[in-house]
User: Fold this.
Amino acid sequence: MKTINIASTEKSPKVLFDPKKYIFEMEGNSRPENVRDFFYPIIDTLRDFFEEISPEKKFTDNETAFNFNFKLEYFNSASAKFISDILVIIKNGNDKGLNMKVNWYFDDGDDDMKEVGEDFSEMITFPFSFIMMQR
Amino acid sequence: MKKYEIIINHKGMINLEVIDDILLKLKNYLQEKQIELVIRKRVYTLAVECLDNIYKHADHTNHISEIISEYPPRFIIEKIYDDFQINTGNIILDINKVKINDKLENLNKLTLDDITILYKKSLTNAEISDKGGAGLGLIVMAKITTQKIKYDFQKINDKFFYFAMQLTIKK
Assistant:
């Protein structure tokens, strides 16, 4: 089972994917120099994992949701494209019966980041939980 | 409060190192001046998209250094009372002029709701180019500025134009 653990930099976010803990997390800024090199392996790993799980098997514990936590401060337009690709994988997983949950975090006062999340949610027709953070 | 302030005034080549320097300087300014979070992030986002756009056009012009010295890339951020203004300038190939002009003309005609619809549609269909662009930059700019985008093309010769653009962020 493939996991992802990428530390954040000034230009790229922290990315964590731990299927055993039912968690995917992306946190920080995203304007990587080579956006394709950064995101393709992440997308491939997620796609492989969620395509391989059969809907009957779901996760080991059917009550548990797979949590996708987006705690982004800033991302550029090219990153937005890849984030939308990740969200489509989540939506597809949900459509085949997997219990998926998207938690979209935004800073208190950052209405634009909340709105971006709402746009994504409408775009993939999948409800998000919106969580305001105090810093 | 100062009525007018130049925050960034860059004239010359724009590469990844220059972009990082400009963005760091901008980030520090916005934090030091305790600019409201939403405005701070809008200015920063527009700066990134503008610099990205200029940088991605740079390789078209590597072989025309004599034109660049006369028409260098420009990136200026000013604060006028509570508003911010970003001015950019860069050389573009004549074949791109019509494309950029059509995109901007169309964006300036749309309402903010229409721009959001276009953004969502474009995000779904976007493909990442070899240069790492998603072709979404101008749409994102129109979405964030919430103002009409001002722009101009100055003819340099048969092959090149100087493309100038002005974005405003109002409080």
